[in-house]
């Protein structure tokens, strides 16, 4: 179990990925993203998660440079967007992302969505980048069990990570079990359900019992479930608060009560039914 903000989980290829990081979805390029990433790094975060479609890779790169922390200490993730999927176009998109980030190598590259008829070719491109040593680990995002099985049928390399929408109202038990069986690390995006869970009565009660906030309880639940998590925030105090989850533990009963909130309810698109 993660004991501090620097703790990592070993992916199936032996690369260490921090359990906790900062997501920058919908964070504006320029000052907003630069500040948010710099605050996170100052707070001790090592992992930063962006994507080509977020339009803020340049700001993330600038913040990394200005942070004064050595590149080797950080774990940087970005993702190939749907319009760029396919073999050659993915390789091109990767070069573009690297130019914007201003990095020599990437820690984790993800296929952002399972675009029908394209994601297998995209995966081949990721395997190439991995073999060339440009990326330390490769994975997918928003893949359901059938998408994973489909990729793995022809893949030389099993995805190391699957980053999906994951929170107490969408516990994804079947997907989580499949990922565990295949040594694929599950990672949560939108762990706080974009704020929709912050006044939930059960979570509030558990939070009061531990003298913690609802957000801290949810993030702790992620970690105790063995799920990597990357909450997003642009406020300095929140970035610090989100990470203050290593000094308490949820009981088995707390964990079960939180699991019981599941409604298979999404705030994001359905991976089996999206058109972008």
Structural domain tally: 1
Largest sheet: 8 strands, parallel
Broad structural category: alpha/beta
- Tally of separate helices: 10
Q: What is the ordering of alpha helices and beta strands?
A: EEEHEHEHEHEHEHEHHEHH
Q: Which fold name fills CATH's third level, the topology?
A: TIM Barrel
Shape call:
globular
Termini separation comes to 37 Å
Spatial strand arrangement across the major sheet: 3-4-5-6-7-8-9-10
For the record, what CATH class applies? Answer: Alpha Beta
Overview of this protein structure:
The chain has helices at 31-42, 57-67, 87-101, 119-131, 145-154, 173-181, 201-210, 214-224, 236-242, 252-259, and strands at 8-10, 16-18, 21-23, 47-49, 75-80, 106-111, 135-141, 161-165, 185-189, 228-229. The mean pLDDT is 98. It is globular, with a radius of gyration of 18 Å. With 276 residues, the chain is an alpha/beta fold. It has ten helices and ten strands. It has one domain: TIM Barrel, CATH 3.20.20. The strands form two sheets. It has an eight-stranded parallel beta sheet with strand order 3-4-5-6-7-8-9-10. A two-stranded antiparallel sheet has the order 1-2.
